[in-house]
Amino acid sequence: MAGASRYCVAEHTGGDRSSRERSKPRNTGVLVAARGVAPRPRRHFVPWRAWPLGRRRREGVRWADGLQGHTTLAVIEVNLDAADTAQATSAIQFTGVSKRYGSQLALCPIDLEIRDGEFFCLLGPSGCGKSTTLSLIGGFAAPSSGEVRIRGELVNQTPPHRRKVNTVFQSYALFPHMSVSGNVAFGLRMAKVPRGESETRVAEALRMVALDSYADRYPGQLSGGQQQRVAVARALVNRPAVLLLDEPLGALDLQLRKRLQVELSQIQRELGTTFVFVTHDQGEAMTMADRIAVMNEGRIEQIGTPEEIYRRPTSRFVAEFIGESNFAEVELVNGDVVTVRDRIPLAAPRQADLERGESGTVTLMVRPESVRLTPASEGDPGLVGTVIKLSFLGSVTRASVRCPAVDEAFIVDAPSGFGQGIRENSLVQLQWDVKDTVLLDGPAG
Ligand code: ADP
């Protein structure tokens, strides 16, 4: 499970082992390599070992076995989120990478870092450059500019089969005349892996995808979801550092897709292998990803955790692509945020917090579930509107509210059974907390 390892390797010299242990070389160790990459073999450094760490921040020191001479190899567990280890902990790093097909720019120059051991989703509408990005990692396409690194190693010139990555495609293309275990073992056979080792690895891979009892079946005897899990096992059996998944659930029906989303996340967490998953389905990305890159027209609009992207979108495109949003065109006047029409003050981040200019039209965004409705009367202060539609959606009831001060109807999701007395055509006041709002550049719509 080398792919799961999160460690730094440090060199520490001098003293006997016991004094070294007492001295705790946390502060004196010299970082020589990090992030799942073996240090360059040096005389003193063999044999070396590293210990996989969990996903959480931890610090501490453990000693390597079998060390020679006066140089000690220690494995220092560190906070891998720390900026100074960011470079070393990258599974994938793009620096100024672009891709052009003839005259068409499929990918603008992008910088991208995918951390070792994370479940990373490339999300965006069709044609935004997701598969191109995946192809550049897998080596199926060559970058037009920039550098692609896998675990720190420049791979621009490295052919696909020499990269430590494997890909699972939407069309899983199993060999119909081979059993499940035969399909999974195929790559190992081609690589001339000894039979005993191959059997062990196939059994391990099938266990990971919970298909160990299906080893002797043929693809035609499996459901679509099971076949896709065989395809995942076929890729995992090679123990890749990075698994690329190109819309692997796209051909499955909704129920099955939802189940496999959970199963794939569990497999990834168990293995700690870096997964790079392409999807155009925001729910799928939100369900599975540690971090998401939202792409649009060959650019990365935003990278963040599902929560960051949902709560703090940095562009209208992201706000609209992930979940639902209300937008209001507002201006900053004397430190207040007011609607452009009717100058109604709204709860929003203060101008000073935004480091913006003195004036200008921007867009306020607030999510439907963050808006509260209370009955109002004609002439009440604040944002007031008329309920034009109430829709029962199960756990929430959705109100569409037309406010004279805002162009688009506001969507409000409230727990069902809310607001006694609020009916269609009721006059209501809309309120929300500042923390639930974001100001986006440019006018609404
Ligand atoms: P996505 O995976 O997000 O749907 P792609 O990465 O497949 O998008 O494509 C990005 C853009 O590059 C699209 O406009 C697509 O038409 C174009 N493109 C992709 N592959 C090729 C190719 N082999 N030749 C020419 N254009 C391509």
Structure description:
The chain has about 450 residues and is α+β, with helices and mostly antiparallel strands. It folds into three domains: about 1-85, no CATH class; about 90-310, Rossmann fold, CATH 3.40.50.300; about 325-440, Nucleic acid-binding proteins (OB fold (Dihydrolipoamide Acetyltransferase, E2P), Beta Barrel), CATH 2.40.50.140. The chain is about 20% helix and about 30% strand. The protein is built from ten helices and 23 strands. It has helices at about 15-25, 130-140, 180-190, 195-210, 225-235, 255-270, 280-290, 305-310, 315-320, 350-355, and strands at about 10-15, 30-35, 60-65, 70-75, 90-100, 105-115, 120-125, 145-150, 155, 165-170, 240-245, 275-280, 290-295, 300-305, 325-335, 335-340, 360-365, 370-375, 385-390, 395-400, 410-415, 425-430, 435-440. The strands form five sheets. A six-stranded mixed β-sheet has the order 10-11-12-7-13-14, sandwiched between helices. A hairpin with a 7-residue loop joins strand 3 (about 60-65) and strand 4. Helix 3 crosses helix 4 (about 195-210) and helix 4 packs across helix 5. It is elongated and about 80 Å long. Bound molecules: adenosine-5'-diphosphate. Adenosine-5'-diphosphate binds near residues 124 and 127.
